[in-house]
Amino acid sequence: MSFVRSVRPSNLVILAALPFIVYLFASSSDYQRSLRAILGIEPGSGALVPGFLLLAVAFSAGFAVLVLSRGKAARPRLTLAAGLAGVLATAAILAGDLVHPFIASVVANGVDPFKSTLVVKGVTPRQLTEAADLMVRGVEAWLWPAYAVLLLAGLGLLFSGSRAPVPAESRALRAGRWLLGLVNGAGLAFVFLFAHLAFASGLATTIRAAVAAYLLAAVLGLLWVGLLKLRYARQTLVLFAAMTVMLAAVSAWFLLQPRDAYVLAGTLEGKVGIVTGTPSGLISAVRFGQYEGGPENETPVRTFVTPDLAIEAIGKKEDVSGALLPAAAVPAGWPRLWQVEALNDRDRAGGITFAVIAIVVGLLTFGGFLHRRHPLSVGSEFVVDTIRGIPMLVIVLYVGLPLSGALKDATAGVFDPPNLMRGIVAMALAYSAYLAEIFRSGINAIPAGQIEAAGSLGLNRWQTARLVILPQAFRIVIPPLGNELIAILKDTSLLSILSIRDITQRMREFQSASFLPFAPYNSAAILYILLTLAAASLISLIEKKYDVKHR
C-alpha cells in the first residue's frame, strides 16, 4: 500500500491501464506494426542493442562515480559500485565484439548515402562496405583500450585523492574528476544525443529534439533576462547612437555604388533569356511586364550562364526570342524594348541589411533615451513580447524554410543546417520567450535585502547572480519549468512539418501506407502520454529533492 501511495495519481491510472495496453499491442498485429514503424525500429536492429547498452552502462557508471563522490553528501558505497560497474562494462567491450555492430550502424547512418563511398548503395538499412568496416574496426582497436586506460586512470586519481588529508585540496582528486567528467560526458553525449539508434530512431529523434530545444531555450531565456537587467548609462546611449550613424553610413555606401545598365532586347514572341547575376528586381519586372510598354500577361523566361549563350540561342531561333542583357553585350541592330540601370543584388542586399540594423539600433537607442533604460534591455523586452505573439507553427516554418534558405544563399551554401537543427533552433527561439518570463518572475521573487547583503559582502553583480539569486530562483521556478518541458515535448510534433522523422512524422507515413484508421494514431498518443508522464514524474522528484513547497 505504501508503494501505491507513493505513485502519482495520474501514473496510477496508467499503471491500472497498462495490462490492457500490453494486451492490445501483444494481440493485434496492426498495433505491433504501427508501434514498430512509429518507434523507428529498423530490420535487424536487435543486434545493435547489446552494444548500445554496454556503452551506455560504461559511460553512465563512469559519470555516476563523478556525481556520487562530490560534495558533503558523498556516498562511498554507491561510488564504489558505480566504478565497478563501469570497469566490468568496459571489460565486456574489450573482450567481445558486441559494440562493433552498433558503431558500424552509427557510421553508416552518419554519412550521405548518395555521395559517400563508405556505404553500400541501394541497401536498406544502410551497411558499410568491407573497406569501411575494416577502417571502423581499426579505429575501435585503439579507441576502446584508450577509453579503458583513461577510465582506470580517472578512478585511480579519484580514489587516491579522496584518501588525502584534505580531499578538497587534492590535485589528484580534481584531476580524476575532470578526467572522468570529460571522457564519460563526451561518451554519454555521443550515445544519447548524436548516435543513430536504429532500434528506436523515431523515439530518439523526438526526445533529442525536445531536450536540445529545451536546453537551448533555457540559455536564450537567461540571456533575455540578463539583457533586461542591464543598467542605464549615458555613455551607452552615446555609443549606440554612434553605432547607428556608422551603420547608416555603411548602408549608404552600399546603396550608392554605381548602377549597371541593362537592356531588354529582341522580341517577346518567345521566351526571354535571363543571364545569371541579373538583379532579381529586373527579372520580376520582365516576367510580369512591370515596365513601360510591357505586356499584361506573364512572360516566360529561360536562364543562361553568360550573355553569349543567350545571344546564341536567339540566333539559332530556338524558343528564345529576346534577352535581358548588360548594355555592353547587346548586339548592334537589335530592337531595344526597355533600358534601365539597377544596383546588383549583392550591394542592394548589403545596403538594405545594414539599413534595417541601423533603424533597429536607432529605435532601441531612442526608446532607451525616453525611458532611461539600456537599449539592449528595450530590445530584449521587444523580442520576448514579439515571440510570444507569434504562433509556434509560424515560427517553425519561418526559421525552417525562408530564414534558413536566406542564410544558405548569403553564405553561398556554406551554412546549410539539417532540418532537425532548424527545428530545434525554431523551438528554442519560441520557448525562450516563455522561459525568460519564468526566470524573470523567479528572480523578482528574491528579496531585495539579500541582493543588498551580497553587495555589502563585496560580491559583484555576476557573483551575486550566480551565488545568491539564481540558486534561490531555480527552486521557485521548478514547477513552471517542468510544465514547459512537457509542453515542448509535445510540440516537437510540429517539427514533422519540416519532414523531420519523429514520432508524428513516422505515424503519418505509416498511416498513409497502411490506411489503418486508429492503430497509428492510438499508438502515437500512447507514446506521447508515456513520455509526458515520465517527464512529470522526473519533475516531481526534482521538486521533492529541493522541497520547493516548504522553502
UniProtKB/TrEMBL annotation:
Membrane topology per record: Multi-pass membrane protein
Keywords carried by this UniProt record: Amino-acid transport, Membrane, Transmembrane, Transmembrane helix, Transport
Gene Ontology cellular component list: plasma membrane
Keyword Transmembrane helix applies: yes
GO biological processes: amino acid transport; transmembrane transport
Cross-referenced PROSITE patterns: ABC_TM1
Record domain ABC transmembrane type-1: where: 344-539
A Pfam short name: BPD_transp_1
InterPro entries: ArtM/GltK/GlnP/TcyL/YhdX-like (IPR043429), MetI-like (IPR000515), MetI-like_sf (IPR035906)
Localization of this protein: Cell membrane
Listed transmembrane segments: 12-28, 48-68, 80-103, 144-166, 178-199, 205-225, 237-256, 349-370, 382-401, 525-542
Entry's family note: Belongs to the binding-protein-dependent transport system permease family. HisMQ subfamily.
The protein's name in its UniProt record: Polar amino acid transport system permease protein
Organism (species): Shinella fusca
